[in-house]
Amino acid sequence: MSIDRIGQGYDLHRLGPGGRLILAGIQIPSDKGLIGHSDADVLFHAVIDALLGAAGLPDIGQQFPDTDPAYKGIDSGQLLQRTLALINEQGYTPVNVDATILAERPKLQDYKRKMRENLAKLLHLDVNAVNIKAKTNEGLGEIGSGQAIACQAVAALRKNQ
Ligand code: MG
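That is the input. Now the predicted structure with magnesium ion docked in place:
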């Protein structure tokens, strides 16, 4: 399958006591949760920006402003679905998505498959077209000390005929 565009996305959210840790729509047991205006799903946010970037559209902060009460506590899966509609309107369809989560803890190994499946379902992609990797920050910086989780993502699109 040919590829017409690629885009990259990045996001970071602070971790704080209490709250929920949601990555790719999956709630993961953790003593700390991600802090944000929405559900703070850092993986979905990075993927959204990768998709928007590939389609040449304004970024997540412009599409879904965190000053808008409509997005308070929103399931970022809904934002991802709206993003898919936006890129479809531009005549594009996702080909594959690849993401890397930077988190010191918790260990995400056991959740990667579920996260991939959820992301693939929302983007109407085969699970093999969606990859999620996870790594620590080797104990360094804000991520390494458990104050934040970040995510990087790349998305490829094809132009519809
Ligand atoms: Mg975010």
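The first helix runs from residue 42 to 55.
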